[in-house]
């Protein structure tokens, strides 16, 4: 894809679920692109991706690197990111990485633009995109932490099969159709809930649960915010849901909480339970916002608050957040190359 203005932009992992969502989002949000360089593994050789009605042939990561892009959006897994991200930044290319490879690196900013874009400096060529579950969580936590000082969060996630990629979707759909499926999960997912997202660690939490613990602290820049999570895979395709319990240091009222959430860019309150209005993945799918509802004070702790948080994990939870970081870099002139 060629244009007379804009950036030369590589999408690494262009044929995956998130990669395709990134390319669609770049077009929808009219990001200024002079040339798009979709890249993937050798398995994708000969494939094309559609960008603004044009079929663009997928290239290898090496070929994309040789084009010296201004910006690269990585969504090809941690191994690829660890192997190639620094090769791109060494050429002056800004990299936004969607894997877990760099998130907890002290020298790499972990960014949700509405929350902490100001942590990006002119020196930062490599920027990490947080985990999908973390992104929607901190979008809801940030305005409350600023006003009421969150000290504890207990989170139960209900995570879409899209978080596991196309293989997760395939297993669910094949099971629903009564077809023998390739088992990406250790148990059937259709009609089931698996309290098992990613691998179990020695502390009996999963990596997904520990991502919520560590990433939230880093993004909010407050090591005193304690987060414990239980991550559950559910037979849903539209997005991730989270039941969130908070304990806050400063006194609050529910109207104060609503006011703080309403002022948060990218956050939409859907909270009229008497009218059956609350966030659902069925309604969040394909949207870029984070939706919050079921806002209520806890019955057992005077400083406790409950809420329900939903977002499309392929959009704001991955692709859109990465694009928003790119838009911030463009808007603030932080690209090192013209």
Blueprint of the fold:
Elements (H helix, E strand, L loop, with lengths): L6 E6 L4 H12 L4 E7 L8 E4 L2 E4 L3 H6 L4 E4 L3 H12 L4 E4 L15 H4 L9 E3 L3 H17 L1 E10 L6 H11 L30 H14 L5 E8 L6 E9 L5 H9 L4 E3 L11 H4 L5 E8 L6 E8 L3 H17 L7
Parallel strand pairs: 1-2, 1-5, 5-6, 6-7, 8-9, 11-12
Antiparallel strand pairs: 3-4, 8-10, 10-13, 12-13
Walkthrough of the structure:
The chain is built from 10 helices and 13 strands. The protein has 338 residues and is of the alpha/beta class. The protein folds into 2 domains: 7-130 and 318-331, 3-Layer(aba) Sandwich (Rossmann fold), CATH 3.40.50.720; 133-313, Dihydrodipicolinate Reductase, domain 2 (2-Layer Sandwich). The protein has a 6-stranded mixed β-sheet with strand order 9-8-10-13-12-11. A hairpin with a 2-residue loop joins β3 and β4 (54-57).
Write the CATH fold name of the largest domain.
Dihydrodipicolinate Reductase, domain 2
> Mean pLDDT, rounded to whole units?
96
Q: How many individual domains?
A: 2
- Counting helices, strands and paired strands, the structural category is alpha/beta
* Residues in helix, %: 25-40%
List the helices and strands in order: EHEEEHEHEHEHEHHEEHEHEEH
Largest sheet: 6 strands, mixed
Q: What is the gyration radius calculated from CA atoms?
A: 20 Å
* Span between termini: 18 Å
Helix count, DSSP H or I runs of 4 or more residues: 10
